[in-house]
Amino acid sequence: MKSPSSGSRAKSAAKGSDKAAPKSTARSTAKSAPKSTAGRSAKSRAKSTAASGAGRKAGSSRATRPARSGAASAAGGAANGVVGAEPELIQLLTPEGERVTHPEYDVELSAEELQGLYRDMVLTRRFDAEATSLQRQGELGLWASLLGQEAAQIGSGRALRPDDYVFPTYREHGVAWCRDVDPTMLLGMFRGVNNGGWDPNSNNFHLYTIVIGSQTLHAAGYAMGLAKDGADSAVIAYFGDGASSQGDVAEAFTFSAVYNAPIVFFCQNNQWAISEPTERQSRVPIYQRAQGYGFPGVRVDGNDVLACLAVTKAAVERARTGEGPMLIEAFTYRMGAHTTSDDPTRYRSDEERAEWEAKDPIKRLKAYLENEKLADADFFARIEEESEAMGRHVRDAIRTMPDPDSMAIFENVYADGHALVDEERAQFAEYQASFATESESGSAAVEGK
Q1: 324-337 b/e with 16+ CB inside 10 Å = b?
Q2: What is the pairing mode between strands 276-277 and 272-273?
Q3: Where is this region: Disordered (predicted)?
Q4: Are 244 and 205 in contact (CB under 8 A)?
Q5: Is the dihedral of CA 256, 10, 203, 128 positive or negative?
């Protein structure tokens, strides 16, 4: 099962700018059950103020019906010891599925393109749910779910051109889908049968990076190389709110700013770095950190696929035209566990999760499609059937994955071989052969009784 080509979809129009400095989101106390840091109700949105010049506008095929301003405010503030003005989320689609406008960013999509975004999110979620179930059944050693973050990943992923290069973490399953990576390829690493089963250069999608934040340095260096080559493509580096505390990320910001690298830093702030809430990591909203490095930052509603698409498209276009780095903070929520080894009920409340469930990215786009009569019941039924087929495909594929050759660990250690590696290979082969000998001896003993 494949996703449509990255270049054939999301012919969006977007324009953008730096946003006013917002106030951080904050929970009550370290010991109390945390509350959600969601935006105010749709009727109380305040129109955003914006500084100049981050994005551009391009044409597309369908004009959306403007409703009201799309600058949604996020709760929290100085009372909890966090400095800065009140944060505003760039939003184009409310949690209720109402289309809104924004003075600096917008996107125009056809009904077919909107349906495509819905399909992307539904199939990505089904793949993720299937992988989680397979881990519980012992088919995977571990799984990092993206549940709740589909809009951030699909919106940003569909904003890229095929020649743009992606540096993911270990959770960007939706972005991988947008880059035409076979979903079953993602499972091999978590099953322990390979180190990532796809060729990064075939899809311009790097291998998953387990070391927190290290991929941002790889991305910065690659972007600096693009600039030296005179290429007009861009780089996007994904990381989370927890990784924003890593020194690698700070170094990547510094190098990218100084060398004016064509890179977009896309931070999915899902509110929790495993069990550590965001306000214990930063006294200002994450996107404001960009100001200290000399490049713009914005905060977008990470559960709004249209806003994520518009903002990312503007940011990568800005990077391509020589205007340098930009930081996007996608304000979203990790609905599931950090990984399948985590128990989120130990550090966050059911009330918090329920509050974010009301902002579900798939439900809000479905509501918009239904309200505007951009999709009918037959369309949703077809997507559900395709989702079921996706589940069967994933289950069948993982159970037929070949086990790796145990001797392969000795390959590619040295370019021209090494005597020590040859010795270790021979010792390991002898060790493995001993199990076969013991097994044969045991079988013979049983038969002789």
Answers
A1: bbbbbbbbbbbbbb
A2: antiparallel
A3: 1-79
A4: no
A5: positive
Output the CA angle 294-299-304, nearest 5 degrees.
150
Q: How far is CA 55 from CA 307, 317, 357, in A?
A: 13, 7, 31
d(CA 262, CA 259): 9
Q: Which of 347, 353, 395, 425 is catalytic?
A: 347
Amino acid at 170: Y
SS3 of 421, please? helix
> Which CATH superfamily includes the segment(s) 6-399?
Thiamin diphosphate (ThDP)-binding fold, Pyr/PP domains (3.40.50.970)
What are the backbone angles phi and psi of residue 306, rounded to the nearest 5°? -70, -45
Amino acid at 362: I
Q: Which of 17, 178, 19, 39 is nearest to 106 (CA)?
A: 17
Asked whether the beta carbons of 131 and 394 are under 8 A apart, the reply is yes
Which of 158, 191, 334, 348 is an active site residue? 334
pTM: 0.78
- Which entry of 338, 348, 364, 368 is annotated as an active-site residue? 338
Judged by phi (left if over 0) then psi (alpha if -120 to 50, else beta), residue 384 lies in: alpha
Return the structure tokens found at 119. Answer: 């399909």
Q: Locate the domains of the chain by residue range.
A: 6-399, 412-447
Decide if 102 is catalytic. no
Show the CA angle centred on residue 215, arms to residues 211 and 216, nearest 5°. Answer: 125
**Side chain identity at residue 395, one-letter code:** R
Q: Using CA atoms, how far apart are residues 386 and 382, in angstroms rounded to an integer?
A: 6
